[in-house]
């Protein structure tokens, strides 16, 4: 199981059992049905849609509900056995654990672990596991089955009464109830070496090989596979790629790791590694005396993800941003935005700073990520619109620290306030528009005035961010006076306050009627163009839009 499971509950009565399960999987989240559950880590609106989304991303699912609803929700997605995540149904009173899907993904192992933690029984129905007490087709982490189809035939033979012997180190089989016989024709062979698999053999490869990368090139994955062949080692026995830190940002290295489906670890000093048994110009192969846990070697490449929360509603957060929040080890941001993104797990480190400490926050984020941690910087709206993405890039641009340059930086989009307010009103940004911040904290007011004048003269729809504050009570009034020199008093204006949040309020007025007192820092102001219009909405209120066409002069 490479991913942490999602623990799904439908009602608050299941929460105590969910929390007991959560202790087995530190870092996992409890997902509760919105408006029916209080105290969950995250919330969802539709059970079936949520299960299907988790299943598609290969996320293990522990659902505290009847097995039937889980089966019906996932029925349309069921395909080839072997490509599904573990899916379990658990009684909300912890009286039963039922593995449903993912027999080759460790679901029965999870079921036994859950049953032990909940002091109940796992409803194991798989023939092989019932007979032998282990799933031979699903070896533990650090081992990989050579051929699934051959493995199925092999287990079928054992279930039909054939005896078996074990060659090689397989400690997890010592407690199994296998029909052992030293003279048996059937053999479980555990070996990192490449060999042709016989019909009477179950071949399992321990992941004992590390590939030390000397230099990366476009054929690196193929060269590693060829080196494994030359050294008579099976490619599935490869545990990880290892490289010195000066290759951390090398894309060809990460492409090769993805192609080989192994992690990359980075070290400063290679002297403590096992001796190489194969060397070439690009790679050295190192063979350990037992399966390798990559997490015990050096550090991973650090990740820094900058996300936008959108307007604030959980269902307006893009899935990639939600995943980044769930996987983060460190989260940084202005306290208001960090609180909106939560709640978070106890193992996640929260770093809240004042809203004006953007550069310090960006530098802190890079320092954390450079140490190999998964870091998320949180903005509201879209991180690239008057928000943290520019500060993060500025910090990187001015830095000469090679560790910062090696960080895996990603910027994920969000729904900016202008787009959220516009969608609530209709389509006032339906034609050419511009976004302007009225804050003069980082640019002179004279520049703002110049841009306002030209945008108003160009008849662009304008969206004002940071329109007014206690420290700047006069600027919105001056901005409106300037715009009124170019626009008629009946120009439509949309005010969107806290759009996407519980206290949202949308107001449609005109430039002539608008007063600065109607606006605060949590309000987005949209000034329409000469073509922006409105009409009554059935049931009350009205739609505002700017046509996509513009009259010829």
What is the gist of this entry?
The chain is an alpha/beta fold.
Provide tags for this entry:
553 residues, 5-stranded mixed β-sheet, 5 domains, 16 helices, 28 strands, alpha/beta, 28% helix, 6-stranded mixed β-sheet, Nucleotidyltransferase, domain 5, Rossmann fold
Overview of the molecule:
With 553 residues, the chain is an alpha/beta fold. It folds into 5 domains: 6-125, Rossmann fold (3-Layer(aba) Sandwich); 143-206, no CATH class; 209-296, Nucleotidyltransferase, domain 5; 303-411, Cobalt-precorrin-4 Transmethylase, domain 1; 417-545, 2-Layer Sandwich (Methyltransferase, Cobalt-precorrin-4 Transmethylase, Domain 2). It contains 16 helices and 28 strands. The strands form 6 sheets. It has a 6-stranded mixed beta sheet, with helices on both faces. It has a 5-stranded mixed beta sheet with strand order 13-12-11-15-14, with helices on one face. It has a 5-stranded parallel beta sheet with strand order 18-17-19-16-20, with helices on both faces. A hairpin with a 6-residue loop joins strand 5 and strand 6 (97-101). Helix 2 (47-56) packs across helix 3 and helix 11 crosses helix 12. It is elongated, with a radius of gyration of 29 Å. The protein starts with 5 loop residues before the first strand and ends in an 8-residue tail after the last strand. The mean pLDDT is 92.
């Amino acid at each position: 199981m490479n991913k942490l499971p999602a623990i799904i509950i439908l009602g608050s009565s299941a929460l105590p059992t969910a929390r007991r399960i959560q202790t087995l999987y530190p870092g996992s989240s409890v997902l509760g049905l919105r408006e029916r559950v209080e105290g969950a880590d995250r919330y969802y609106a539709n059970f079936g849609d949520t299960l299907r989304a988790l299943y598609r991303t290969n996320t293990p699912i522990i659902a505290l509900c009847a097995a039937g609803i889980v089966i019906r929700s996932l029925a349309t997605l069921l395909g080839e056995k072997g490509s599904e995540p573990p899916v379990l149904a658990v009684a909300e009173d912890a009286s039963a654990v039922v593995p449903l899907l993912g027999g080759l993904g460790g679901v029965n192992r999870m079921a036994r672990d859950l049953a032990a933690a909940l002091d109940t029984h796992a409803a194991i129905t798989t023939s092989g596991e019932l007979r032998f007490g282990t799933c031979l087709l699903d070896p533990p982490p650090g081992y990989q089955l050579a051929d699934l189809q051959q493995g199925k035939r092999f287990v079928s033979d054992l279930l039909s009464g054939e005896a078996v012997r074990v060659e090689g180190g397989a400690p997890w089989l010592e407690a199994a109830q296998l029909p052992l016989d030293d003279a048996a024709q059937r053999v479980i062979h555990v070996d990192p070496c490449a060999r042709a698999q016989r019909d009477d053999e179950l071949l399992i490869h321990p992941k004992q090989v590390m590939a030390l990368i000397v230099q990366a090139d476009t054929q690196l994955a193929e060269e590693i596979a060829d080196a494994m062949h030359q050294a008579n080692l099976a490619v599935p026995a490869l545990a990880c790629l290892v490289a010195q830190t000066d290759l951390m940002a090398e894309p060809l290295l990460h492409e090769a790791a993805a192609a080989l489906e192994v992690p990359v670890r980075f070290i400063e000093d290679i002297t403590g590694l096992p001796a190489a048994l194969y060397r070439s110009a690009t790679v050295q192969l190192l063979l350990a005396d037992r399966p390798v846990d990559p997490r015990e070697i050096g550090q991973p490449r650090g990740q820094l993800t900058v996300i936008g929360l959108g307007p604030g509603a959980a269902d307006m957060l893009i899935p990639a941003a939600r995943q980044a929040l769930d996987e983060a080890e460190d989260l940084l941001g202005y306290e208001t935005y960090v609180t909106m993104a939560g709640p978070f797990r106890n193992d996640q480190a929260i770093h809240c700073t004042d809203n004006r400490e953007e550069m310090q926050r960006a530098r802190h984020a890079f320092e954390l990520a450079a140490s190999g941690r998964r870091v998320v910087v949180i903005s509201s709206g879209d991180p690239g619109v008057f928000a943290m993405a520019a500060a993060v890039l500025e910090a990187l641009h001015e830095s000469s620290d090679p560790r910062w340059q090696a960080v895996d930086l990603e910027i994920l989009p969000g729904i900016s306030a202008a787009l959220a307010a516009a969608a609530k009103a209709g389509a006032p940004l339906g034609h050419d528009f511009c976004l302007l911040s009225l804050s003069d904290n980082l640019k002179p007011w004279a520049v703002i005035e110049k841009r306002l004048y030209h945008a108003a003269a160009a008849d662009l729809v304008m969206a004002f961010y940071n329109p007014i504050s206690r420290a700047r009570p006069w600027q919105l009034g001056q901005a409106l006076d300037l715009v009124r020199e170019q626009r008629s008093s009946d120009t439509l204006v949309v005010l969107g306050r806290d759009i996407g949040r519980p206290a949202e309020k949308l107001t449609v007025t005109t430039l002539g009627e608008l007063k600065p007192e109607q606006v605060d820092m949590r309000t987005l102001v949209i000034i329409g163009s000469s073509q922006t219009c409105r009409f009554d909405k059935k049931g009350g209120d009205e739609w505002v839009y700017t046509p996509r066409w513009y009259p010829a002069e």
